[in-house]
Amino acid sequence: MDEADILIIGAGVIGLAIAAELSKKYKGIVVIERHNSFGQETSSRNSEVIHAGIYYPKDTLKAKMCVEGRSLLYEICQKNNIPFKKIGKLIVASEKDEIPALEELFQRGKDNGVDDLRLIDAADLKKIEPSVNGVAALHSPSTGIINSHKLMQLFQDTAQNNGAIMSYVSEVIDIKKNVYGYIVMVRNNNETIFLNTKVVINSAGLDSDRIAEMGGIDIEHFNYRLHYCKGQYFRVNHSKSHFIKRLVYPVPKPKSAGLGVHATLDLCGSLRLGPDEKYLNNRNKDYSVDSSQKNNFYSAANRLLPFINKDDLYEDIAGIRPKLQREGEDFRDFIIQEETDKGLTGFINLIGIESPGLTSSLAIAKYSTGLVGNLIK
Ligand SMILES: Cc1cc2nc3c(=O)[nH]c(=O)nc-3n(C[C@H](O)[C@H](O)[C@H](O)COP(=O)(O)OP(=O)(O)OC[C@H]3O[C@@H](n4cnc5c(N)ncnc54)[C@H](O)[C@@H]3O)c2cc1C
Fold first, then answer.
1. Lining residues, ligand 1, CB within 6 Å
2. Same structural domain for residues 184 and 316?
3. Residues 164-192: tens digit of each pLDDT
4. Which of 176, 178, 278, 349 reaches 20 to 30 Å from 92, CA-CA?
């Protein structure tokens, strides 16, 4: 039987960030990933936005990890030449009756420690973004964009240089507790391998609830079950990319699963709309983009960005949010927990790591390292 001290399941941005951080302190780290390279699921199917931390209720993990993670991310990007741009963002009210919600977001952001937000009126909005329509806006200068592939590459390189082992094409299929810690059963091609480990870190994204279940947790009782919510993107004709300089978001609707279809720019200056929100009634990872949604994207964008015509839109990618709340349910926070109280000492679950997971990755890695520190001296 092979041995590890710490076994991390999943090589998305979260598993990799944790591997990089832990490897500075610990040996015997193995990362298990079912695909043949890192970031093949949600971590490469997102908006690549470094969020400021505006939307999340005060004192939640989402708020704290986002605000802390954002600063850490800018710092690591600068130090390691990871491409990023702090281009800023506008949340735009297109009707007067959205202004109270904008003011609430302003206050919420301030409560979370986002101290550079500014409420601006229609005239100021026209000055900084002449092509955007709106009656008022919330300006967040510290929002940015990042090359998430390069970030993940850095995390993997750091972990490997410090001795961590990456095991690709390896799928965790079962986990059993024993006196030593855990025996993790892994399928690698046609072989089944058993790995003994003291600590299991479950950063398996869309399947993190299943991994928790394999570990012996009643995921219904503890409310750990995930619900898939798809988000599709449409790309905008390149000739329209120069019309805006900042990310442009609508005011989010209460209880909506996402932030509303918004306009993001990538590091090449290319403009995209999305993601929309559609809860799936199965667990298929279907990343196709439904071309019939073009009309909906057009009308969502048209209110704020009148320079976009329907013919400018092309289907792009889709991602799937691993959501803890069902459709219409209230806010749920990230679950980042060591499970001693469930009789599973050394089992650390990270479940429901949807947005702002990318922004939060370094803060989550530090937090998780703290949880491991209580287990391995
Ligand atoms: C549409 C969309 C837009 C988003 N936009 C943003 C944004 O702009 N900014 C932001 O901060 N966040 C954003 N997010 C959130 C962010 O993308 C995620 O929080 C983050 O990528 C989650 O990373 P992860 O490592 O937890 O999951 P993943 O990237 O899904 O990685 C999990 C890994 O675990 C592996 N795995 C699962 N089960 C097993 C198994 N049994 N054995 C072995 N391996 C396994 C998978 O193959 C996968 O590689 C967005 C998310 C979506 C869906």
1. 9-15, 32-35, 40-43, 45-49, 51, 171-172, 203-207, 231, 275, 319-321, 353-359
2. no
3. 999 999 999 999 999 889 999 999 988 99
4. 278
